[in-house]
Specification:
Number of domains: 2
Distance between the termini: 30 Å
Helix content: 10-25%
CATH topology of the largest domain: Diaminopimelate Epimerase, Chain A, domain 1
Shape: globular
Number of strands: 18
Radius of gyration: 20 Å
CATH architecture of the largest domain: Roll
């Protein structure tokens, strides 16, 4: 009697790697975007994000006039990610023939809206102004240069005097990794030489120490700089190795952050029922 060979059931999913806040192939912050028709198990989505090995992987489901959206780093799910939201909007418009405007995302952080203005994706997010705070000793020890001001929202906001200080700042990662700030991190910022302000973003105990461009950090950066500079419209740069440009507007309880996007690659991945 012949044995019956069981063929594993294979599911194939599209995946797009998109650079947000840049129109360059090796600039901005890269996010992987995965369209779904139903949520996968959380541990599987986390495994996919870890395999993708970029700062965030976005998973979305189209639901008529809205789009359900979740974000995973290689380490855990997070409650808000600006650059992966912008990347998802780019994916919907450029690769999924999505025509509903504005794009309405439903997320853990509530409703987010993306429109296209002047060739840029404009993301509307909740403001997260910081309050005056003190740094934990571990963060103080990890910094090569101490800030002049410290604030705290989801993230710590550290204010310095010059762009040169931001660009040269070094984090002692073994010391930094002694603290867990999940889901937050540490923003460092200063007045820019050619921009209203510049910043960098670091996360302890994370696979990726420095995030290339952090849209959600501007939920805290924009209220601070709008008040300090007495202006609501701001042009910002994140001074990571890849770098990114952001056009921002303070709207009180909301913050608008705009940027460019570019698809780097598009393909598929496969998962079997034995995965």
């Amino acid at each position: 009697m012949k044995s019956i060979k069981v063929v594993p059931f294979i599911m194939r999913y599209p995946v797009y790697q998109i650079n947000a806040f840049s129109d360059q192939p090796f600039g901005g912050n890269s996010a992987c975007v995965v369209p779904l028709t139903a949520w996968l198990p959380d541990d599987l989505m986390l495994a996919i994000a870890k395999q993708n090995a970029v700062a965030e992987t976005a998973f979305f489901i189209e639901q008529g006039t809205s789009v359900a959206l979740r974000w995973f780093t290689p380490d855990h799910e997070i409650d808000l990610c600006g650059h992966a939201t912008l990347a998802t909007a780019h994916c919907l418009i450029e690769h999924r023939n999505y025509t509903t405007k504005p794009i309405h995302f439903t997320t853990q952080s509530g409703s987010l809206y993306v429109t296209v203005q002047h060739g840029r994706y404009q993301l509307d997010m909740p403001a997260r102004p910081g309050v005056v705070s003190e740094l934990p000793q571990v963060i103080i020890q990890a910094l090569s240069l101490q800030p002049k001001e410290v604030y705290k929202a989801r993230d710590y906001l550290l204010v310095y005097d010059t762009q040169a200080e931001i660009e040269s700042l070094h984090i002692d990662q073994p010391v930094f990794d002694q603290i867990n700030l999940s889901p937050g991190g540490v923003i460092v910022t200063a007045l820019g030489d050619k921009h209203d302000f510049v910043s960098r973003f670091f996360t302890p105990q994370a696979t990726i120490l420095e995030d290339p461009v952090t849209g959600s950090a501007h939920c805290t950066l924009v209220p601070y700089w709008a008040k300090r500079l007495n202006k609501s419209t701001l042009h910002a740069r994140q001074c990571s190795a890849r770098g990114g440009e952001l056009w921002c507007e303070d709207q009180g309880e909301r913050v608008q952050v705009s940027g460019l996007a570019r698809t780097f690659s598009a393909g598929t991945f496969s998962i079997t029922d034995s995965t």
